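Journal club prep, shared notes

We agreed each person brings one worked example of a sequence with its structure written out as tokens. Mine is Glutamate decarboxylase 2. I'm keeping it raw so we can talk through how to read the token line rather than staring at a rendered picture. Sequence first:
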Amino acid sequence: MASGGFWSLENENGGENSNQNQSTPRAWCQAAHKFTGDLGSKLYALLNVGEGEKTASTIAQKVGDPTENCDCNKPCNCSKRNLDFSNLYSTDLLPALDGDLATITFLQEVVDVMLAYIVKSFDRSTKVIDFHYPNELLETNNWDLSDEPETLEDVLINCRAALKYSIKTGHPRYFNQLSTGLDMVGLAAEWLTSTANTNMFTYEVAPVFVLLEYITLRKMREIVGWPDGQGDGLFSPGGAISNMYAMLVARFKMFPEVKEKGMSSAPRLAAFTSEHCHFSIKKGAAALGIGTDSVICIKADERGKMMPSDLERRIVEAKQKGLVPFFVSATAGTTVYGAFDPLNAVADICKRHNIWMHVDGAWGGSLLMSRKHRWKLDGVERANSMTWNPHKMMSVPLQSSALLVREEGLMQSCNQLHACYLFQQDKHYDMAYDTGDKALQCGRHVDIFKLWLMWRAKGTFGFEAQIDKCLELSEYLYNKIKDREGYEMVFDGEPQHTNVCFWYLPPGVRYLEDKEERRRRLHKVAPVIKARMMEHGTTMVSYQPQGNKVNFFRMVISNPAATYEDIDFLVEEIERLGQDL
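Then the structure, token by token:
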């Protein structure tokens, strides 16, 4: 039988009668060391490779001379191979026979592409974005799918182009979204996760990752304040899905018959949330058949916090109309203002009316990691469920969103369907670790390893320092512009989160006496400056209207790479790009 190549290990029995050749030639290992340096030696040691039938000349016919040096144009010891990828295809890579060297060389090229991009991402002299309009991007590059395979050289060109035109979300001057930054340990974990390429539904196919999810969710529940980390939870594809899970479980808790009989078996339900809530609350209600009209928005104060008095009033009104209140979603860190609803007051009302209390902490939940700022979530321990997105303030690579539920077993009862081809009841291990039946998904991506590995690398104190730094930078920005000429704050007082909301008034708008004209022209300022930011590629920050307020900048800081100098740059760049407006 032909050798399995580099990946051929000793069989489990180690018997003399094995038909499988158990080794790869020493000549290959020497060649591997030539072009991978220490990598080849480490792989050799790791896999205990020995002599084999395959000859170095056979491999050389496929991939070229193993002694050929690289073309770095500078002194080095890398001895990188010069493979002609224009003559190679994906079928020349593993599991192809003798595809070992081509595979490692190709992947090394891909790693080089990624490493170059990573280094540029942290270089302030590089652009945050190489912006092209959609039609330009379509015309400049060939993105079409063909019937015939492309060469590996074309594939590498595609890899470079994909990154070239992507946003450098790890760039210190990228402030556009709530999820920014690029963590090296998290990135390494994501690479390893893709290498494992497994599914989270059962312990038998993801033993390590299932246990890590169990351990991490328990730790997160402890931080929330639930005794001994009791409860349940899982990682889902983003905060919107986590919020929908919470609504689903809350409905099941009150009306379990809906699972089998549908919404016709329940009275008309009512959910309550702040008028500044994330749009996913209404989307969840629509998806679950509850309806967006059944989501009652509660007034927020001038800082964006839910008003408990209005919540109580609207609950009483709903009951009088024959609706059954079943769910209240309080927000810990609203998307625009970064406001924290008064959780203890909301909890009192929910207890009084026997309503499920959910906390959407997708944006602000990570402040629980900070001893200085966790008071902003006082009362979260009284909630029935919580959404927490580590891919935001903790800079875990996308995606990383957890739903935490205080009552153990409720998610399982709500969602399980006992699929016998996955969740056999006579397995030889504890079935409690088969988590797939409590999820809506069957296939579930491994999102846990990057968070767990980063937590190991940083410790809780490391995350705390990272979060505190971001909040210090937002305080610095607020103090810098609150009394600066040409700036107006959207609301009074220092923000609770890293959200700093402001208008920039260019000289052409600043001194207008006609209020309506001033308002009309101010509405156009932020979009124009944002467009210029992207065209120049210097920085990115978001903008939006809110209620009756015209477009304003919403600066958020979650990027650990950002510094005071980057905040200074942002202010100066806004003024430079908007001075002629």
